């Protein structure tokens, strides 16, 4: 749907695969992350992997129904396969927004039942819905009605005192009656009273075994594991027990070692792997178009700060962009100057 995405595609490093409603694969995906997985970020990630499923930031139903829907829904054609994550708890509103997502060409819609922030709790969005499995089932049933794209759910192991395996089992038993067949499980519970969203990403202990048990008990469901995963070797271990792996912060902060390898490792696609520098240079045509639209340089390039993580000149690259990317008049030449800080050997 090129009419929805005014920026031109970056010079491709590889041919984008054909994606249809029936071929969305969740074997490896990058998690939805607020302020991080923007369209600019997803275009960057797609230069390293053609098959990884990319998720938007969570978008609330209110933002789509009462706000600037186009601003939230527009994306770049190169992002496919791409999924829209919705936040909400009104079945009719969620169904309306799911239809909007299908009209805009998204490959999947995912319901957020995992975000622990106070703001979403007050609006009956996110992890607090784990206390209301029938409501979640009703929402998912309405969302699936009238659309052909997959509708999935992402949730926690539990919340607060509702943290037993029995509660998790009952939650899934009820939610699956909606017809939803794909469950992405963050292998931590959420503590809604007393921990910040940031603390909820680290303090509650990871319990991967509970996710494994869910797959054993519900072999007909697609079960995706999420939480604390940092390496492809860890992914290999999880994939012995579940159907897919979703990686969050590590894929954002140190993307190249993960995303450049997944196509051959998990999707049987042995295309040439682009170097870090090739990825950066391939991003420039897209950067030029976004700058021409009036987007600030740093807002676009901040998502690339981890590209040279652990490499010679990587710290200098990050520092140069951080110090100069905000300045008035910062443009493509600023980005190229940052790249000049990086030794091109071994990239």
Automatic annotation (TrEMBL):
SUPFAM superfamilies: FMN-linked oxidoreductases. It comes from the Bacteria. It catalyses: 5,6-dihydrouridine(20) in tRNA + NAD(+) = uridine(20) in tRNA + NADH + H(+); 5,6-dihydrouridine(20) in tRNA + NADP(+) = uridine(20) in tRNA + NADPH + H(+); 5,6-dihydrouridine(20a) in tRNA + NAD(+) = uridine(20a) in tRNA + NADH + H(+); 5,6-dihydrouridine(20a) in tRNA + NADP(+) = uridine(20a) in tRNA + NADPH + H(+). The record marks 112, 198, 201, 318 as: Interacts with tRNA. It holds the Pfam family Dus. Residues 30-332 form the DUS-like FMN-binding domain. It is an enzyme of class 1 (oxidoreductase). InterPro entries: Aldolase_TIM, DUS-like_FMN-bd, DUS_fam, DusA, tRNA_hU_synthase_CS. Keywords: Flavoprotein, FMN, NADP, Oxidoreductase, RNA-binding, tRNA processing, tRNA-binding. Its cofactor is FMN. The active site is at residue 115. FMN binds at residues 32-34, 85, 154, 186, 226-228, 248-249. Its EC number is 1.3.1.91. Gene3D superfamilies: 1.20.120.1460, Aldolase class I. Belongs to the dus family. Belongs to the Dus family. DusA subfamily. Catalyzes the synthesis of 5,6-dihydrouridine (D), a modified base found in the D-loop of most tRNAs, via the reduction of the C5-C6 double bond in target uridines. Specifically modifies U20 and U20a in tRNAs. This is tRNA-dihydrouridine(20/20a) synthase.
